[in-house]
Design goal:
With about 450 residues, this protein is an alpha/beta fold. It has 3 domains: about 160 residues, Ubiquitin-like (UB roll), CATH 3.10.20; about 160 residues, Rossmann fold; about 70 residues, no CATH class. Helices cover about 30% and strands about 20% of the residues. The chain has a 6-stranded mixed β-sheet with strand order 1-14-13-17-15-16. The chain has a 4-stranded antiparallel β-sheet with strand order 2-8-7-4, with no helix packed on it. The radius of gyration is 21 Å and the shape is globular.
Amino acid sequence: MLKTFPKGGVHPPENKLSEGAPIDILPLPEQVVIPINQHLGAPAEPVVEKGESIKAGQIIARSKGFVSANIHSSVSGKVLKIDKMSDSSGYKQTCIVIKVEGDEWLETIDRSGELKKDISLAGEDIIKKCAEAGIVGMGGATFPSHVKLSIPPGKKCDVLIINGVECEPYLTSDHRLMIEKPEELLTGISLLMKALGVEKAMIGIENNKKDAINKLRELVPGYKGISVHALRVKYPQGAEKQLIKALINREVPSGGLPVDVGTIVHNVGTAFAVYEAIQKNKPLVERVVTVSGKDMGKPLNLLTRIGTSINNLIEYTGGLVDSTAKVINGGPMMGKALSLIDVPVTKGTSGIILLREEESRRKKTGPCIRCSKCVSVCPMGLEPYLLMTVIEKELFERAEKERIMDCMECGSCSFICPANRPLLDYIRLGKASVGKIIRERKQK
């Protein structure tokens, strides 16, 4: 019987329309807009000036502090300006705008397609190079990878978990990486194992990706300590805590981290980026992005330079169709609707989804009928109907007591609610208010 997490979960339509589309290379844009904050933690600080000529792979903003990440240019050209510009959230942040001139890379970067399996660096040097290359979590969280690899004193890790679940509807970028770059991925996992000092790694993949499972199972005998595990299809299995429970039956405590139960979780995209950083000396300057939608002519998986306008990706796949009502950054369950499409792809951009009117239209909201469906599907064991009620009444202390900060915002509650209540919207508002209260309390 296939493993899965035991508590909650839903089965939204998969709509993996682009799973059979090989990774295509998006042509270079005329310019890129590169935000200096594409990660959790402190924004990076620009180290280039207007008018400066730069090469692809060159550092253009340096991390400030431990929890931060370097930013590199994804193209060669001239810095047009450093200014406040809109990002995918709709807010303005400092961005470095570069006019593209040719495609000249730093000479230290190996851009050959030759596989390099031999690992020569020590664990601490691997972590250092990940920091230099600006590697962050590619599953969407964008937590700096060198921080996650640095095990705190008093903690230990005995197993590395690799997240190949990709349970969000429509998204297929991780799936294609596993099929098209399996040995690079496995080498990247071996590098992560060495950095952590562990001898065991488990790759979790949902059973709707049998081709990826079979491909990796063919190759893992050549990589010590790595195993591949097929999982039952259930959303949100790609969440860290649910994947840990499914694979090794350990439960991360409320407010805790995976390292508290002896494991670290990395996305397959992150493992591939680590391979390129260590073995090819290539910083994180491009990523695979799924562009999909039911009415699109050709849903694709595009290798895209960071800073490219989302509008360029949509135009490459045929442009906005008349039936498009919303453009989603990410998947339809946890992604956010874009108010503008002329905003840049960042390190955390996994997909761009074009939703039809009937998919995106909010249905009429009714009163809660106390059916408890939202409770039964919550993977964290919360009571979403209660959280919405206390947030409506601004009872933030009660919301904290009811563990609102444990919510991962997966959207299962809103998806299943027969009264179409905006449960997740209220919970997000509540988390922002409760989080502010907690931070103020800690500062006293």
